[in-house]
Write a structure and sequence with these properties.
Strands 1-2 form a two-stranded antiparallel sheet. Helix 2 packs across helix 3. The N and C termini lie far apart (about 45 Å). The protein has one domain. About 35% of the residues lie in helices and about 10% in strands. The chain is globular, with a radius of gyration of 15 Å. By secondary structure, the protein is an alpha+beta fold.
Amino acid sequence: MPIQKSDAETLRPLAFREPAEVLDPDKLYTVYEIARLLQGLDYDTELDVETENVLLDWAIPWMIKHADELVFADPESDTEPGHYGLAE
């Protein structure tokens, strides 16, 4: 349900962080780990499924926007996720 702007304590601009601000250049991460890092969480933070799905809704478009700055490593098996990291 919408609220009135005047009811919000603080309004701040929507800003997305750059990949180099989020990812360690020597590591590769799953999209799930990147989603956590984008929110300022540790990459291994336990989340419920609903929260993780919301974070993925933010992470996937961010990754697409920054695709030129990222690399992808194939998964080790069909049941494992791929890993992403900073391009050199």
